[in-house]
Amino acid sequence: MMHKQLSRKGLKFNRVVSTAITNLGAIFWACVAVFPLYLIVITSLKEQGRMVVDPLGLPKIWHWENISLAWQKGHFATYFQNSVVVTVSTVGIVLILSFFTAYAFARMSFPGKNLIYVIFLVGLAIPGDVLLIPLYYILKDMDLLNKLWALILPGAAFGLSFAILMLRSFIEQLPKEILEAAIIDGCSELQVALKIVVPLCRPALLSLLILNFMWNWNSFIFPVVLIQTDELRTITAGLNYFQGRWVANVPLLMAGTLIIALPVIVVYILFQREFVKGITAGAVK
């Protein structure tokens, strides 16, 4: 009896220690992840001299005008608008095309299905930067250089492979009885896809929305190479040229960086629960 009680106490102690270590580890990595953002925020709101004297401390005087000054001096209103157009268009194309493609792979049979699916998956093994030079000449021949389509079309193409892989896995996990019952009730495949599968795939679609939003919003090398007109630059490429003009003013540069980071942070905070659901549900078949 005494041995059983000691064994139970030992198990409880091990669980408490394990939980404490897990929580401490989570807190540590959360601090590691948040610390760069903390530096960006406090530096963007300091004056230049204070940043040198106390780089890690909070500002004594909060210079909120740094953000508005960076917005004006860096032409971020134009760059921000271009980034929104490119990102929203690219994400919309990826979600629509990948959903119907993944639905076809998961629910239908047609000649060459497996081969076509493998061809899509090959896109995951090819880094986009490797294709930048041939893509440049292709877009040049199509007269798309220095146009926002030069960023939208490649961005959508590079995002399709992963999106199709994730959505196909998610759709294949859905209860077949529900889909078959809808077909028996007279629904067409299109009605099943739009009225039943889309609501059930909401976590996966929102996860893809967040991922593709981050990838395209933060894209740097493609906007720099494919867009040379200042009026059409995206916000990341605009920050690159802004840095060249204000390299000595670190608070102003951090204010520009904060302007770029805020939309991604807001989108992730709004959809973080659905993002986790989509990633965990679509990861294992």
Question: What attributes does this structure have?
Answer:
285 residues, mainly alpha, MetI-like fold, 2 domains
Q: For this structure, what is the CATH class of the largest domain?
A: Mainly Alpha
Helical stretch tally? 13
Low-confidence stretches: none
Give the tally of β-strands: 0
| Largest β sheet strand count, sense and barrel closure | none
Structural class: mainly alpha
Query: What's the multimeric state?
Result: single chain
Mean pLDDT: 83
Distance separating the two termini = 45 Å
Question: What secondary-structure arrangement, pairings included, does this model have?
Answer:
Layout: H1 2-44, H2 48-53, H3 65-73, H4 76-107, H5 113-125, H6 132-141, H7 149-172, H8 176-184, H9 189-200, H10 202-217, H11 221-226, H12 235-245, H13 250-283
Helix pairs in contact: 1-13, 3-13, 4-7, 4-10, 4-12, 5-7, 7-10, 7-13, 8-9, 10-13, 12-13
Written description of the protein model:
- This protein has about 280 residues and is mostly helical.
- The chain folds into two domains: about 45 residues; about 210 residues, MetI-like fold (Orthogonal Bundle).
- About 80% of the residues lie in helices and about 0% in strands.
- It is built from 13 helices and no strands.
- Helix 4 packs antiparallel against helix 12 and helix 5 packs across helix 7.
- It is globular.
Write a concise synopsis of the structure shown.
The protein is mainly alpha-helical. The chain contains 13 helices and no strands.
